[in-house]
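During the no-cost extension, the postdoctoral fellow (Dr. R.K.) reprocessed legacy sequence entries with the updated structure-token encoder. One reprocessed record is reproduced below for audit purposes.
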Amino acid sequence: MNTIACRSQDRSLGPGHGPLPVPAGRGVAGAIGLCWLLLRAAAAGAADDTTAFWDRGLLDMELHDVHIRATSFYDAWDKLGRGYLVRTVLAVEEPGRRMGAFEFAKDVCTVRDLIGAMLGTYGGYTLTQDPATGVLWIHPASVPYESILAGLIEVPQGLVQVPMLQGVLRKLQEQPHSGVFVVGRGFIPLLESAGAYPVTLRPGVFTLRDIINACCQPSPSRAFGIQIFGTAAAIGPCDILDSTRRPVARPGSLRFWRLGMGKASEAEPSREELLQALASADPHERWVARSFIEAERSHVPLGKMIMGAPRGRQAIWASLAELSMLNLMMPSHLMVGAKRIQREMSLGTAADLDRATAVLAAMEMARVGDDALLKKVARWSLTPDELAGMYPDSVRIATLSKEVRAALREASCAWPGLSSKDLRDMEERKPLVVPQ
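Re-encoded structure tokens follow.
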């Protein structure tokens, strides 16, 4: 019998997730350095409880007019995720894809019904919900969840806003005895863009499974396909995007918006609502809006929103949203957002912006070769609330751009997390290691 094992025992929420001493997205003062950044990045949404609430409630989410026709287990799993934004991690043992047709048609059903039908058709698999994060795992029934990716990984100093694929998985692949393979060994074709999103991991020793769960937390539209080879595993990051132009957003996206924004219904947000949320003073609301737009990027015309946004704060923050989603894969100077920021700055918008927004705009200008404004604003003395309003974007941009780091150093920037010492620590931070 296929069962859903929902464990309730208390344990650490793993890297990048856990109880925070401040509410998500609110101001914080007093702490400095890496601990300060880890707190701010987590509080700004990188490891927000919204994602855990969303994951935990997926099984009971109601779906309407459901029609799936698949040719294999992998195909059915892929269509479940892409069609409805239902995130599950798929772990398999057999070297090939489990073949066989799957058809499912219901006017109304729950995600639990749909996954149950899949497991009943293909057999040999079960579903487990991680007790700490709520992430759903489909895995062989003969392999206990606790034994999957149970090897220990040490995060010596913590990682803040690092690219998931390059900064986590590939660093693990480089470690002797980690047993992690990323390229060319698994059943998931490697798509670089699927791993190009920022993650934050707390310092400590964790199982590799905890690391994977933590890497799910920053975005509801990211998942993993894992092929187990004894004590080793091929791990393939994948996105849960849908290129189909739909008249409405997918049910999983609408549910995420409702939970994240505290809405009473799952009505789809208007462009005006999204622009307001993207420019919110609350980093949590900005993260929810970005996550929704990223999940529905074929449905929500972010480029048109950027070009049509009112001058000033909304235009800058909509542009920053695009750059936060895509700048790991595409030169920033080719993006609509980068061009809009350049246009805003050329029109003298910086003088009318709050200082945190002006700093982030200046950092993006420096990424495309114009660092004059950043060298000027980097000398400002910012309040703790202004600093908090910049995170995690300021750390993400500095992590990605050596030009930004150089400009901050030249200006002798003293902001917590972006001082010369902090930037040096960012560049020299110890990678993930396998404890001996």
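Residues 301-428 form one domain. The first strand starts at residue 4 and ends at 6. The remaining legacy entries will be reprocessed before the final report is submitted.
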